[in-house]
Write a structure and sequence with these properties.
596 residues; ibrinogen binding protein from staphylococcus aureus fold; six-stranded antiparallel β-sheet; five-stranded antiparallel β-sheet; cytoplasm; Putative rna-binding protein; ribosomal large subunit binding; NFACT_RNA-bd
């Protein structure tokens, strides 16, 4: 999964941010966490929020991100120097993955420098690039190394664009290891990134996975240079033209359908400002701008992590339930098999009753005559060689446990195989058969108990699994991010009959509500006390508003008086202008009439 910007991403984002943000003023700065900051910007009626994350990304965002209740020291420093400053420029330092955002001009100029490589950094400098604050101070081991600390100058001059010509490319190929691929070889030498390189290589019929050993320097250098020129042309296009946004999507099957009936989990994998050739056959989400794509990508990451984590927990819970079921089934099958084997052995003893009795007699006689175990074994081997049927049926002596094993078969069953049956010397042939029948009955009783306990255990595990799945669904639903609605910046509520009621939090919002959001058919309510909230009951259908909602608006506005000649406790309905009169702009209340 892609987690940070490439150079082409930075170039495309700078082009878009330069067109949209230059000229806007900083209203406020917030910190989401120790690495992520929000710059709230404003220009006349236009607003934007710029999100920067050290080492990872920058883009405008339409999502409501959680803000720390107490701003950090770095955030306070940004507020001190940048509030009410205008964004003058957004640029890249050389070919490095470093973005320089300038606020203010001349002596009042400040720079916010965002490093998007390695561990990243965020630096606040003055107009001469003297560091005022830095998120991650660092110094080199040697005295000559550049120091990234307060009161040191940020090394702008070190960010230089690399150049790669035919001679340099030939030298790179000559000194490369034969097993290296073109991707591994060229990616650190140029600033285009692996995705753009693969795109231009495919366009020229090459593969970035090709080995250096397969490349002829004298023949292929010209083609490689053409690929690099194509890449530079795309970089120039990204610098000068706003790009669309493309998000690569991976789809997985859900273990259980979601509440909305969907059976798939989609997860975002990569974001790009162009649709590269290598991604043309993949599932892609296209957005109107690259910034919107990056915003959508990162804003959805947390939700995707939760969804995938929930998916994994679902799989684990169901797998655990399945393992319990399979374990119980194996136990039952094993007990059934034991019963069948014991029954079969008992039947074989009964069928071969005479043979078993003769074997018992032979071995008992030998033991009664105090013949040693080794000698009994030798006598048994000699008898087997002479073809004695009793000796040949005795397969193994277990005299230490007073048992021996016989190979028995059913003479009435054609093609029956020999079965090894354990015989107890202390028991008769009938008693040995009964012993196996008793073992079968014991296994049957054990099977019944196992079946009953398995049913209870399976139901208990199933209940726990359902509870776990409910908890997973609850957790995954709580943390979903969403875009804020336009009216959430005001006081607001939605009535039981779906009327939206909005009110200003301050004088500026009161004026905004009247100018922008008061339309014909809406009900306008204001209050007697100075600075009271302006209340608007939105009525897009134009019908009559039930009196009870006007009463709610009065209470919300505190002793209302519309200011149009209505007394406290009255309300105003905004109507359409008279016939023949030019339409009045949003917020004009000259045609509002008092409703007694």
């Amino acid at each position: 999964m892609k987690s940070r910007f490439s150079t082409v991403d930075i170039v495309a984002m700078i082009c878009e941010l330069r067109q949209r943000l230059v000229g806007m003023r900083v209203i406020q700065v917030y910190d989401v966490d120790s690495k992520t900051y929000l710059f709230k910007l404003n220009r006349h009626d236009e607003k934007a929020v710029l999100l920067v994350e050290s080492g990872v990304r920058l883009h405008t965002t339409d999502f409501a991100w959680p803000k720390n209740l107490s701003p950090s020291g770095f955030s306070m420093k940004l507020r001190k120097h940048l509030r009410n400053k205008r964004v003058e420029s957004v640029s890249q330092l050389g070919a490095d993955r470093i973005v320089d955002i300038q606020f203010g001009v001349n002596e009042a100029a400040y720079h916010v420098i965002l490093e998007l490589y390695d561990r990243g950094n965020l630096v606040l400098t003055d107009g001469d690039y003297m560091i005022l604050n830095i998120l991650r101070p660092r110094t080199g081991k040697d005295d000559d190394d550049v120091k990234f600390v307060v009161r040191e100058r940020y090394p702008v001059q070190s960010a230089l664009s690399p150049a790669l010509d035919a001679e340099a490319l030939t030298d790179i190929l000559r000194f490369a290891k034969p097993a290296d691929t073109l991707r591994k070889l060229l990616t650190p030498k140029v600033s285009y990134g692996p995705a753009l390189l693969e795109h231009v290589f495919r366009a020229r019929g090459l593969s970035t996975g090709a080995k250096v050993a397969d490349v002829d320097a004298s023949r292929d250098v010209a083609t490689l240079l053409e690929c690099l020129r194509d890449a530079e042309a795309l970089m120039e296009r990204a610098r000068t033209e706003p790009s669309k946004g493309y998000i690569l999507v991976r789809v997985e099957k859900r273990v259980t359908p979601a509440d909305d009936g969907s059976t798939e989990i989609t997860s975002y994998q990569e974001f790009h400002p162009f649709l590269w050739r290598q991604h043309e056959k993949e599932r892609v989400v296209e957005l109107a701008s690259f910034s919107a794509a990056v915003d959508q990508f990162f804003s959805s990451l947390e939700m995707q992590r939760i969804s995938l984590k929930a998916h994994q927990k679902e799989k684990e819970a169901l797998k655990k339930l399945e393992n319990i079921r399979m374990d119980h089934e194996k136990r039952i099958v094993a007990l059934e098999q034991v019963q069948q084997e014991d029954k079969h052995k008992a039947e074989l003893i009964e069928i071969n009753l005479d043979l078993v009795e003769r074997a018992l007699l032979v071995l008992r006689s030998a033991l009664a005559n105090q013949i040693g175990w080794a000698e009994i074994t030798e006598l048994l081997r000699e008898a087997q060689e002479q073809g004695d049927p009793v000796a040949q049926s005795i397969k193994q002596l277990k005299l230490d446990t007073n048992h021996f094993a016989m190979l028995l078969r059913d003479p009435y069953e054609e093609g029956a195989k020999d079965t090894l049956v354990d015989i107890d010397l202390d028991l008769s042939a009938y008693a040995n058969a009964r012993r196996y029948y008793d073992q079968k009955r014991h296994a049957a009783g054990k099977q019944q108990k196992t079946l009953e306990s398995s049913t209870k255990a399976h139901k208990s595990a199933e209940k726990k699994t359902k509870e776990a799945l409910k908890q997973v669904a609850l957790t995954s639903n709580i943390a979903r991010a969403r875009k804020a609605f336009w009216f959430e910046k005001f006081f607001w509520f939605i009535s039981s009959e779906d009327y939206l009621v909005i009110g200003g939090r301050d004088a500026q919002q009161n004026e905004m509500i009247v100018k922008r959001h008061l339309n014909p058919g809406d009900v306008y309510v204001h209050a007697d006390p100075h600075g009271a909230s302006s209340i608007v009951i939105k009525n897009p259908g134009g019908g009559s508003v039930p009196p009870k909602y006007s009463e709610r608006g009065r209470h919300h506005g505190h002793l209302p008086q519309c200011g149009l000649g209505c007394q406290g406790g009255d309300k105003c309905l905004v109507g359409a202008p008279p016939s023949g009169v030019q339409d009045s702009p949003h917020g004009a209340v000259s045609d509002a009439r008092c409703l007694q």
